[in-house]
Amino acid sequence: MKNILRDLLLTLFSSFLLILVSYGFGFLIWIAFVPLSIVFYNNKNNFKLAIFFVLLFILVEAPFFYNVVISEAFVFYIGAVLYSFVFFLLLFSLVFLLSRKFEGRMEVFILPLAFMSLFILFGYTKYLNFIVNFSIFQPNMNLILKFVGDYGLLFLIFLFNSAVAFYVIRKDKIYLAFILIILGLIIVSPLYNPEIHPEKSLKVALIQGNFPLSWEWRKSNVGSVFEVYKNMTLEASKFNVDLVVWPEYTLIGDFDYENIKLLSEDINATIILGIANHMNNENFKDSALIVSKGSLLSYNASHVFPGLQDYAVPSKENPKLFNVQGFDFGILICTEETVSHLSRDYGAEDADLIVSLSNNQHFNYKGLMMSSLFTRIASSKTSKYTIRATNNGITQVIDPNGKVIKSLESNKRDYLIATISTNNEKTIYSKYGNFLLYLVLFILFILITSKIIKRN
């Protein structure tokens, strides 16, 4: 009975730590799964009891962790909680099966290997995989991100949690060595700020219109919305900007885009804006228009927000770079911020900067904060500036080391002026992507599988 009470308290403590992570205490992600892992491995001979504690962890943690939306987006909240429930149930069931058939020091790799395998597998569904991408809570891990990206960082987070748990259980110095090595990386990574050699400068204006109103209202009042953005853009143009960015879904419904071309010519600057490009009465494409010197280019999002798949039609074309005024840039719209390989692809193709457009009107402040972390990760792992324009927050400019150098207050109508620079830097991650991580995962899979076969 004493052991049950101890395990119960440890499980609740693990849930509490992960909840704190979602409220801004991101550093706790390195130990958030330690108490649960200790409980799980102490009960690995009793599947029902071990899974009971996992279920308790999810039921306590998930409702608070994913409390990121307002009531109008309750369906997303339920979807996120259910996704988390299924993912962690499958994860620890897999860990249970492997740990029962395999013993030894390499058992420390079972949790990170199982997590990454499921994470990558779930990624192919394109549905809510970002829900369990806990790497976003450590956007300052520059050294790790520039070498192995967010997936590599995610692997190290779970390896560290696993190593600490095994050291507590077995007191083996090998696990202590793992802890110290990763701890060294954790300490050094934020200090790694390689010098970026700027090439060309660009003055940008990010416009935050703050229209927390329904889709139908914005569609019916598209002209009024345009006037607001037009006036704010004219005001921002007094700073002699080169590029003006409006957020996702700035204009919804029928609109004469010649007005945008005239505005672009009037201020002598490129304008990028998000639109809902209607195909018929029900379906639309989540798109961006690039207006420069009388020309009009378009980009259609290749990934759409979960729950909108029945309405928003994703593009089947691969994302591409646009060249305007001598600058190459890639565009991310909404959920594309969370798709790891898109920002990496832009970095590999020598983009000068990344432009992100989001709506975010259905997020509460916690949701605004969490969603903005993905663009910080994108900047750090590619060493490129990212400029992010949103409807109501968080609009921000991020430097090549993932630091926010300028941002706007959320839920407020305002604009931001910043000068950024391009560079020809290409990180190890931009060059090789997840190759190193996949190689490590493959080797671990072969080693663990061979030992299981040999033991049996």
Task: Please summarize what this structure is.
With 456 residues, the chain is an alpha/beta fold. Helix content is 48%, strand content 16%.
Topology of this protein?
Layout lengths: L1 H21 L11 H9 L4 H19 L8 H28 L8 H14 L18 H29 L2 H16 L12 E8 L6 H6 L1 H15 L6 E3 L5 E2 L5 H10 L2 E9 L5 E9 L2 E6 L21 E3 L2 E7 L6 H9 L4 E6 L6 H18 L2 E6 L5 E3 L5 E4 L6 E8 L6 H5 L2 H21 L1
Parallel strand pairs: 1-2, 2-4, 3-4, 8-9, 9-10
Antiparallel strand pairs: 1-13, 4-5, 5-6, 7-8, 10-11, 11-12
Protein traits:
alpha/beta, Nitrilase/N-carbamoyl-D-aminoacid amidohydrolase, 2 domains, seven-stranded mixed β-sheet, six-stranded mixed β-sheet, 14 helices
Explain this structure.
- With 456 residues, the chain is of the alpha/beta class.
- The protein has 2 domains: 2-193 and 433-455; 201-424, Nitrilase/N-carbamoyl-D-aminoacid amidohydrolase.
- The protein is 48% helix and 16% strand.
- The protein contains 14 helices and 13 strands.
- The strands form 2 sheets. Strands 1, 2, 3, 4, 5, 6 and 13 form a 7-stranded mixed sheet that branches. It has a 6-stranded mixed sheet with strand order 7-8-9-10-11-12, covered by helices on one side.
- A hairpin with a 2-residue loop joins strand 7 and strand 8 (327-333).
- The radius of gyration is 23 Å and the shape is elongated.
- The two termini are 34 Å apart.
- Mean pLDDT is 87; it is low at 309-313.
